[in-house]
């Protein structure tokens, strides 16, 4: 039996099976061993701790792999193979009239969206051109490939030259309502500060995503490596996901789906109309906060971590504690029976899951 357990953990380390598959195999073995001797049972705690360490180690190794890969990309000296480079700035602007959507695609560089009181959308490009030491020639190549055009009600901004690092500061008039902002990046982060969009879409392979003092109807934010952070935001629906990094949401959002493979997930909503809060992580801590005035239907679970449900006025509908799996289901009714309850889901494989009322409601 012990050899079989070691084999399963070895397969997990080598990546031959997933964490979920390993848990299922170990859980099945746990059920088979329930008829074991008292001596075997006495070693259960030690064995459980060994398994927990294996899963934490697997998560740490993944994080180290991601951090090492990203560090190499960030520290890679692009100038070394070419021995020369040149930097310059360039500014473009367009009248905001009739513009409803802004679409940005940058391969290598960052995008920062700022509020403006002007009647034009202005982009300040900070460019570094590798394999070139002539500013005039570099600027000419950049302008030849630069996309900054009005296309009906859309403003399209783009640069796909591989030897250019293009950082964009975009100044957007706030008096105009916008239906959509779409940003796609390969290597670089994106921030939106003080500008509202009905539909907000940001995706990057490597870089953090930040949003502050903004409103949206629907937002979808994705990064493979980097944190996702939203502060003082108001929205109807939000999807936020990262493979390696933290997800932090603090605002008045009604429907949130947040995931991190290797990082903590913290969701806080002050909305009295919140409908769903779902937070999941493999190796990080999950924290969920919401107003105490809401009716509730919720479930929290963890394989290795602690379940911390500190809501004194809820009914614990069901509690399960099986081998490598713990679950608590809870609910709360309020006076307004016509109002749909807030659905809460918190899950972490190896980390703690915490559920609380907002601090202002606890005073």
The number of distinct structural domains comes to 3
Question: What structural class do you assign from the helix and strand content?
Answer: alpha/beta
The mean pLDDT is 86
Beta-strand share of residues = over 45%
Largest sheet: 23 strands, mixed
pLDDT < 50 runs, ≥5 residues: 37-42, 75-80
Order of helices and strands: HHHHEEEEHEEEEEEEEEEEEEEEEEEEH
Shape: flat
Helix content class: 10-25%
Counted by DSSP, the helix tally is: 6
- Computed over alpha carbons, the radius of gyration is 25 Å
Cα separation of the termini: 52 Å
Could you give the count of β-strands?
Answer: 23
Give your account of this protein's structure.
This protein is of the alpha/beta class. It has 3 domains: 2-75; 80-213, no CATH class; 227-363, no CATH class. The chain has 6 helices and 23 strands. The protein has helices at residues 2-13, 19-32, 38-42, 44-75, 135-145, 359-362, and strands spanning 85-95, 101-108, 111-116, 120-130, 147-151, 154-159, 164-173, 180-187, 190-193, 199-206, 209-212, 215-225, 228-244, 247-262, 265-269, 276-281, 286-290, 296-302, 307-309, 315-322, 325-332, 342-348, 353-357. The longest helix is centred in the N-terminal third of the chain and has 32 residues, at 44-75. It is flat. It starts with a helix and ends with a helix. Residues 37-42 and 75-80 have low confidence and may be disordered.
């Amino acid at each position: 039996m012990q050899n079989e357990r070691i084999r399963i953990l070895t397969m997990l380390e080598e990546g031959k099976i997933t964490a979920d598959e390993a848990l299922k195999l170990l859980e099945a073995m746990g059920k088979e061993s329930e008829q074991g001797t008292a001596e075997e049972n006495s070693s259960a705690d030690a064995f459980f701790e060994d398994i927990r360490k294996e899963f934490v180690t697997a998560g740490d190794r993944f994080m180290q792999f991601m951090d090492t890969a990203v560090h190499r990309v960030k520290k890679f000296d692009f100038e070394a193979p070419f021995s020369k480079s040149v930097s310059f700035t360039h500014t473009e602007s367009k009248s905001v009239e009739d513009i409803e959507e802004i679409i940005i695609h940058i391969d290598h560089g960052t995008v920062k969206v700022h509020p403006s009181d002007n009647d034009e959308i202005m982009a300040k490009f900070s460019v570094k051109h590798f394999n070139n030491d002539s500013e005039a020639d570099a600027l000419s190549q950049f302008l030849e490939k630069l996309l900054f055009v009005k296309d009906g009600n859309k403003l399209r901004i783009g640069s796909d030259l591989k030897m250019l690092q293009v950082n964009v500061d975009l100044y957007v008039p706030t008096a105009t309502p916008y239906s959509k902002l779409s940003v796609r990046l390969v290597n670089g982060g994106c921030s939106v500060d003080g500008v509202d969009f009905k539909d907000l879409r940001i995706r990057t392979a490597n870089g953090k995503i930040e949003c502050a003092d903004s409103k949206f109807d629907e937002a979808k934010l994705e990064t493979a490596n980097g944190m996702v952070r939203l502060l003082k935001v108001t929205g109807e629906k939000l999807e936020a996901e990262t493979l390696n990094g933290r997800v932090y949401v603090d605002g008045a959002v009604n429907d949130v789906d947040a995931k991190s493979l290797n990082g903590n997930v913290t969701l806080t909503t002050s909305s009295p109309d919140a409908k769903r809060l779902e937070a999941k992580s493999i190796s990080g801590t999950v924290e969920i906060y919401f107003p105490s005035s809401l009716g509730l239907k919720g479930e929290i679970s963890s394989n290795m971590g602690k379940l911390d449900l500190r809501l004194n006025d809820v009914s614990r509908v069901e509690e399960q504690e099986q081998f490598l799996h713990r679950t608590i289901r809870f609910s709360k009714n309020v006076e307004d029976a016509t109002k749909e309850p807030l659905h809460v889901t918190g899950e972490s494989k190896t980390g703690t899951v915490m559920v609380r009322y907002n601090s202002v409601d606890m005073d």
